[in-house]
Amino acid sequence: MPFTIDAFHYGKYHLVQPKGGHRAGMDAMLLAATIPDDARGCVADLGAGAGAAGLAVAARVPGVAVTLVERSKIMLDFARRTLALEQNAWAKDRVDIIAADVSLKGAARRAVGLADDAYDWVILNPPFNEPGDRLTPDPLRAEAHAMSDGEMFDHWLRTAGAIMRPGGQVCIIARPRSIRPILDALAGRFGDTEVTPVHSRADGEAIRILVTAIKQSRGWVNFQPALIIHDGPGHSFGERMNALNNGRSALPRRRPARPAR
Questions:
Q1: Region entry Disordered: which residue ranges (predicted)?
Q2: What is the dihedral of CA 193, 208, 162, 149, to 10 degrees?
Q3: Could you tell me the residue range of the domain that residue 215 belongs to?
Q4: How many domains does the chain have?
Q5: Would you say residue 252 lies in a domain?
Q6: Fewest CB atoms within 10 A around its CB: which of 81, 82, 233, 241?
Q7: Is residue 78 part of a domain?
């Protein structure tokens, strides 16, 4: 399969990814930015693809180890090739890969290496679309973007809750229309939820939401100030967005997570 090797964070790490399939972009970088600069412990990147978000965390936050979790054999191959790059030698002892379906439960999940209460931070970028949406004919894009199960958010957040330590932080990026199923899936598992809308421009509707929550917290849902991608007349990122996209800044919660150690 044709592929490219692309530099991220001004060359701090490189990614091997399919030339015509699902390619990493702003969503992965925003997801990674939700991990604070001073975070410690273990991070799980569920549905990691070639590893863009997980490596973005590892490249910016020296105090964490990262596990990339992916089910697609094709994307697992790209992730392994990514970690084998000479440019990513710094990640050898801090980033590993688990081949697993995120929806696995109980003993089956533990058997593939996703242990209970093992992670302090979990990030996830699940498929956005619903079965009735018009889907791309490209099979890699379709797998990355198409929701095949109406209970998908519940499956992914159930796994996130199972593998995370009490007090740990989960973050999910999704379309705004998914807010209800996300909040339903968080209920009973996570609380103290913070929702950050992401707008292309200040006068437009939100195109994404970043949702963070704390395991076993009973806090309320709080909406945070919007993140604006373009704050000028052109198509360039605004200063803040450019910093988030290139690993020069974090987007931490207003109420910091305190994972149990």
A1: 239-261
A2: 130
A3: 3-245
A4: 1
A5: no
A6: 233
A7: yes
CATH of the domain at 207: 3.40.50.150
178 pLDDT more than 80 = yes
In this structure, which long-range contacts are made by residues 70-75, counting pairs with CB atoms below 8 Å and at least 24 apart in sequence? 70/97, 70/98, 70/99, 70/100, 71/47, 71/99, 71/100, 71/101, 71/102, 72/140, 72/143, 73/99, 74/1, 74/18, 74/21, 74/140, 75/22, 75/48, 75/49, 75/50, 75/140
pLDDT in tens, 139-163: 544 444 444 444 889 999 999 999 9
Tokens linked to 120: 């302090």
**What is the DSSP code (8-state) at residue 1?**
-
| pTM of the predicted protein model | 0.91
**Is 255 inside any structural domain?**
no
The closest alpha carbon to 164, from 55, 42, 61, 28, belongs to 42
